[in-house]
Amino acid sequence: MNLAVSYTFVLTTYVVFNLIFGLSSTMPVHSSYQIKVFFPEERDALMQIRDSVSSTLDLHGNWTGPPCNQNLGRWAGIICSNWHVVGLVLEGIQLTGSLPPTFLQNISFLANLSFRNNSIYGPLPNLSNLVSLESVFFSYNRFTGPIPSEYIELPNLKQLELQQNYLDGEIPPFDQPTLTLFQCVL
Ligand SMILES: *[C@@H]1O[C@H](CO)[C@@H](O)[C@H](O)[C@H]1NC(C)=O
Ligand SMILES: *[C@@H]1O[C@H](CO)[C@@H](O)[C@H](O)[C@H]1NC(C)=O
Ligand SMILES: *[C@@H]1O[C@H](CO)[C@@H](O)[C@H](O)[C@H]1NC(C)=O
Ligand SMILES: *[C@@H]1O[C@H](CO)[C@@H](O)[C@H](O)[C@H]1NC(C)=O
Ligand SMILES: *[C@@H]1O[C@H](CO)[C@@H](O)[C@H](O)[C@H]1NC(C)=O
């Protein structure tokens, strides 16, 4: 995984001449590094969703620069840990549109994912390889089609909410021992 780092070197120089006494001058130099780190694959994945949906939040205005500042999310709905995006929580903001099918797969450390209470339509996203996922909330949307069978392979899944959508087909044979909450009505 690539790590992108950009440095903004801020040098502020104050020059103060003591003209009253004419004998001494002071020149304090104040400098600081502002380091910006992000993982390009994670950011690119988030750009894909930003550009696929509309919402009541101005994601184009807000999701700029790096998504994380170490353990703090800089973007609305983004939760971070050690510069990685670990949570994506966008609830009740009238997210409208269809998700790019595989856009989440590069957010490798994603643990919490919620799109609860929006207007997302089309198929549920592919969550293959997201081995850290613990909570997945897609309830109260307009998703259609089957529950992807690869959801049964998420090894740390604890909570999965899919109710209040327009899903069909069979419920795959979930048997993760971690799974304590599963809500779905087909
Ligand atoms: C984006 O939104 C978050 C949370 O609402 C806010 O803290 C942050 O300052 C915003 N950033 C920009 C660039 O607007
Ligand atoms: C769902 O989102 C709408 C805004 O789009 C909000 O008014 C409503 O309270 C939310 N409902 C729930 C159950 O959170
Ligand atoms: C994931 O990241 C890799 C490397 O940047 C890129 O080639 C690939 O297209 C990305 N996958 C998705 C699903 O966006
Ligand atoms: C995921 O959310 C749960 C509760 O909503 C929280 O306890 C947990 O710390 C979160 N995980 C991460 C990695 O943010
Ligand atoms: C989901 O993504 C994985 C890895 O990219 C791929 O192997 C699998 O075929 C995809 N599943 C579907 C149903 O497209």
From TrEMBL:
Recorded superkingdom: Eukaryota
Residue stretches spanning the membrane: 6-26
Keyword Nucleus: no
Record domain Leucine-rich repeat-containing N-terminal plant-type: where: 41-81
InterPro entries, sorted: Leu-rich_rpt, LRR_dom_sf, LRR_N_plant-typ, PRK1-6/SRF4-like
Pfam families documented for this protein: LRR_1 (PF00560), LRRNT_2 (PF08263)
Coiled coil: none
UniProt keyword terms in alphabetical order: Leucine-rich repeat, Membrane, Repeat, Transmembrane, Transmembrane helix
Protein name in UniProt: Leucine-rich repeat-containing N-terminal plant-type domain-containing protein
Species this protein is from: Salix udensis
